[in-house]
Design a protein that fits this description.
The chain has one domain. It contains 9 helices and no strands. It has helices spanning 4-35, 41-53, 57-70, 72-75, 81-100, 107-130, 137-149, 153-171, 177-196. It is globular, with a radius of gyration of 17 Å. It starts with a helix and ends in a 25-residue tail after the last helix. Mean pLDDT is 89; it is low at 205-219.
């Protein structure tokens, strides 16, 4: 059997995980929007900008992602296929999901949407990061600032997320129990799903993803 077949199958799996993860990320974020109980930090900003501009959240997400990607230039960051795909795919799937999932009014339904959104977001993160096609624009901003300033990843990430949450809230974005639940749960969930979806090397052997803490690998839409 040709050695190209295993490599082709390996690449196909990685590509499937990349785009399945991005699509699921957009859909899971839309569920959090429909729950009305709070959003991920960056989506608080996206929602606030959407409220102010009249643009869809997905379109705002795409525009902000592209703007953040421009900040990679002075930081000397190099985008990968996953980086560019992040900008193009997540916003589209978020808007598509928002178009078919109505607002929830019953408390039980809202809580269920919130829980599903957080868990599926963790699964999406595992799928996308394990594909190893490069970080999302916002993660690249975080790691780029870390390398350029010498400030720890923890401090840089916290400062960025506080800034976007406060700005988004002032603009009209939703901050609530869902925001807190996301902040607490996304790390452990991402680590779990990174292990579940880890892609072994094409030549076989042990997976190289999902070792250690995923502090640098958390996908921000």
């Amino acid at each position: 059997m040709s050695s190209r077949s295993p490599r082709r199958g390996h690449l196909v799996r990685r590509l499937f995980q990349l785009y399945a993860g991005l699509a699921l990320y957009g859909a899971s974020s839309a569920l959090l929007v429909r729950s009305g109980l709070g959003l991920e930090p960056w989506n608080v900003l996206h929602q606030g900008l959407s409220e102010r501009t009249g643009l869809s959240m997905g379109l705002v997400l795409t525009v902000v992602g592209a703007a953040v990607l421009l900040l990679w230039i002075p930081l000397r960051q190099r985008p990968g296929l996953g980086t560019v795909s992040n900008v193009l795919v997540i916003g589209v799937t978020m808007d598509a999901t928002l178009a078919v999932v109505p607002d929830a009014h019953a408390v039980a339904t809202r809580v269920a949407l919130m829980a599903a959104g957080v868990v599926l977001n963790g699964a999406a993160t595992g799928l996308y990061i394990a594909a190893r096609f490069g970080p999302g624009p916002r993660d690249g901003l975080m790691t780029g600032l870390h390398r350029r300033t010498g400030v720890s990843i923890r401090v840089v990430r916290t400062a960025i997320e506080i800034t976007v949450v406060v700005t988004g809230f002032v603009l009209g974005g939703t901050v609530g129990v869902g925001t807190l639940l996301y902040a607490v749960a996304i790390g452990p969930l991402a680590q779990l799903f990174l292990r579940v979806f880890a892609v072994p090397p094409a030549s076989g052997g042990s997976p190289v993803v999902a070792t250690g803490q995923p502090r640098r690998a958390i996908l921000r839409p």
